[in-house]
Amino acid sequence: CVLCGRTDDCPEKYGEKRTYVEYNLTVHYYCLLMSSGIWQRGEEDEGVDGFLIKDIRKEVNRAAKLKCNICKKKGASIGCVAPKCKRSYHFPCGLQRQCIFQFMEDFRSYCWEHKPVQQLTDKEPKGASQCTICLDLVEHLPVYTVLKSPCCKNAWFHRECLQYQALSAGIYFFRCTVCNNKDKFQEEMLRMGIHIPERDASWELEENAYQELLHCYQHCDVKRCLCRKGRNYNEPDSKWEIKRCQYCGSRGTHLACSSMKSWEQNWECMECRSIFAKSGKYRKRKRHSLATSEKINGTNCLLEEPSPKSPRQSSGSANNFLLQSPKITCQNNLSPCSHLELPASNRVTMSLTPVMSNGSWSLTQQCLREQRREVCNILKELKVQVQTKTTRLNINAENIWSSALKGFRQRNFSPTNTIEVSFSNCKSRSKTNTSTASKHHFFQLLMHHLQNSSLFEGSSGKNLSFDFQAVKENLYFEAGKMIAVSLVHGGPSPRFFSQTLFNCLVYGPENVKPTLEDVADVDVAQTIKMIKYANNLSSLQSTLQDCCEFLAAAECLRPVTALCDKNMLVNDLLTYHVIKRTSVPLESFRQGLKTLGVLEKMQMHPDAFCSILCHKPERLSAEIICDLFTIHSSSDVNKVKCADFWMGYLQDVESGGSVVTLEDILLFVTGSCYIPSIGFDPEPTIKFLRIRYPIGNKLLNSLELPITKTYQQFKNKMEVTIRNTLRAEKE
Q1: Of the four, 169, 601, 639, 731, which is 20 to 30 A from 706 by CA?
Q2: Quick one: 591 and 461 in the same domain?
Q3: What is the pLDDT of residues 558-607, one digit of tens each?
Q4: How many domains does the chain have?
Q5: What range(s) does the PHD-type domain occupy (predicted)?
Q6: Closest alpha carbon to 421 in 408, 598, 386
Q7: For the chain, give me the number of helices (H) and strands (E)?
Q8: SS3 for 632?
Q9: Domain range enclosing 92
């Protein structure tokens, strides 16, 4: 190596040893990365991974003048970054003397005297414990060869074990082996000199690792094969084409033997039905007709049904009435034209007195409003953690999940940084949109994607599903983290949690009893329902005999000697399918929700957070919009008069007498078509000025309205401006 002078070829210690015959150059990759006087000035395909050849030669010449403080030989290209420290050394010499090399940011190096050391408290247990990687004993000492996990109290590692694991797992899979934490763990390990390569895991890069999966199975395995030419006969594009199990691919059936209309339909074998019952994919196949009532040879086709779930009762829609906002000091019982002489056709007769009194609101509605106000204050307390330092997310709206995941996993992302969002390849976002408006739109798209993703199951109130690939890629943790960040940074709340999922998060799964409504799989729910409503012992035993594979998969296969035994059996089945089956995703999801302290606040204020996580948002009404804005005016006369017009216009919009909607008004002023759970910052205001047309300032959440003589003039200006502005932004 031209930098360290050694011939060792040890990629684990010194990085890949590369030789370039045309340049007469050999170099260790780590020696090059850590050298103090060279920077990556070229593209990735230029020189040595972006290090230009002429720059490498300059660095070699510079290092030739420096003597290593360890081996006393020339060529020491690496220097300690500590102030006033003039020590220089070769990379292998630094490793031998236990220097720290940080493979991040500026690739800093620290000598043996100034290197960072993990701080251990007096409460740390003394003695030794097992390294959770090699399972050999490791002493609890603050020495170079031992590292402690920053996220677990009793997790200790050998430095060498961690380095080998990091090289194998790569940046996407390297995490704490005890609690599965990734961000905090990687940050500490990088600080302590562990190199985490930016590539996929080694087991994902192995060539032909899954070659056996390419074998196509062609044999009909149903009990009664209808094909006269035998079970091995396969005729493509006919009813005798063999369809393989969608899960294992090692069992098959002729389309006609399973009454399947086309090859596009899914089919699963009996073995996979019992195995995948643990992941909620059990199907007890039924015969039912097509939606179009089409039949084949007089027999209904077998199709897979969706997995509907009984919709939960929503919190109720808002009533159409207008309350006077507490933020304005106008007189009661004003109408928009009470002080104007207008023709009868243009007259708006409206009072600010509510059409219905507050007492007629349901108790549930009032309670939800109070709880949402409480959540707003709690989230504002959490937002104090957010700093002015910004993190930019480049989002592709057409692939919202992948781009969001990439942004949240980038090294410089921190939940405590202010988030800025820029959209790419998205025609629906204007280049003139503010960062706040883009952020609102991003979080709205993200929450909508999560609601319809494979991470959750159910139609209305959703529970966690079991997706093996998502567990492997730690996506449940990322989903919880995204929801927590959305709540604190002014995005929407998910509002699709089932009460059971919420209770599991807040009180722990061991304290929750699921109901039949929580089972998303319609076939599983039907089977449990048959057991639950069996009216005598013989019918119960007959039902259990028919679904013994299903019971065995749920670990509930047991003798039943009395009808009352069914109650405990049903409870155990519900607990398994709703809670036990998803215990791993639930724990990962809980860890993600701990971001910014959101889960802790949920556990302290469960009723308040339930209102924004389990209930649909209250429909925008004139009353809500009116209460949202604080009105400012240059004179009391203008304030009362213009406020009268503003109130009347909101009432018109709500009743459908306008071409714009209440969401359009909110979007025009704030850049968001919804009210965030944390509220707007700054709070929306209204000013009445002598201007020609309304002006919406999305940065200040300010609405400037023109002072007009008549209500009709006010309404016309509002509609023309809002409609044209939103249309221009969309185009």
Answers
A1: 731
A2: yes
A3: 888 888 889 999 999 999 999 999 999 999 999 999 999 999 999 989 98
A4: 4
A5: 1-115
A6: 408
A7: 25, 20
A8: strand
A9: 17-110
